[in-house]
Amino acid sequence: MKKTFVVLFCVLCCVVLFAGQANADVVLVPQWSEFCPEKYLDARESTGFWDAKKLGPDNDYWFERKKQFREAVDLCQTKYKDDELNECYTKLKEEEKKKNEKWEKEQEEKKLEMERRQQQYLDQQRRRDAADYMNRMMRY
C-alpha cells in the first residue's frame, strides 16, 4: 500500500511538472473581441446607400478593421511557427492597440468639435436673442 501511494504521488508530481512545460509552448491566437468595442463586434459590410446610412461610418471602420485583423492572423498562422508565430501575434496585438488609441483620440476630437459647434450655436442664439430684445425695447 505504501509503495502504491509513493508511485502514485511520483506520477502526479511528474504530471504537474510536465503539464506546466507543455502549456509554456502553447501560443494563444489573438481574438478580435480583445480590440473591438462590444458595440461593433458584429459589424457588417454596408451593401448600399440606405445600409451605409443606417449603419454609419463607425460600423464601416470596424468592419474593415475586422477584415484586416483576420487577414493578419491568417498570415501569421500560414507564414510562421512556434516563437516566430508568437512574435507575429505580439506585433499584431501592438498594432491593433495603436489603432485603437488612434481611433479613441479621433473620437475624442470629434466629440470636442461637436461640443465646440454646439457652444458656438448657443452663443450665436444668445446674441440674436439679445439683439432682438434690444430692438423691441427701442421700439417702445
Please describe what this structure looks like.
The longest helix has 58 residues, at 82-139. It is built from three helices and no strands. It has one domain (30-139). With 140 residues, it is mostly helical. It is elongated, with a radius of gyration of 29 Å. The termini are far apart.
Q: What keyword list fits this structure?
A:
single chain; 140 residues; mainly alpha; 3 helices; 80% helix; elongated
Shape: elongated
Low-pLDDT stretches are: none
Structural Rg:
29 Å
SSE pattern: HHH
Short précis:
The protein is an all-alpha fold and 140 residues long. 80% of the residues lie in helices and 0% in strands.
Layout of helices and strands:
Layout: H1 2-24, H2 49-79, H3 82-139
Helix pairs in contact: 2-3
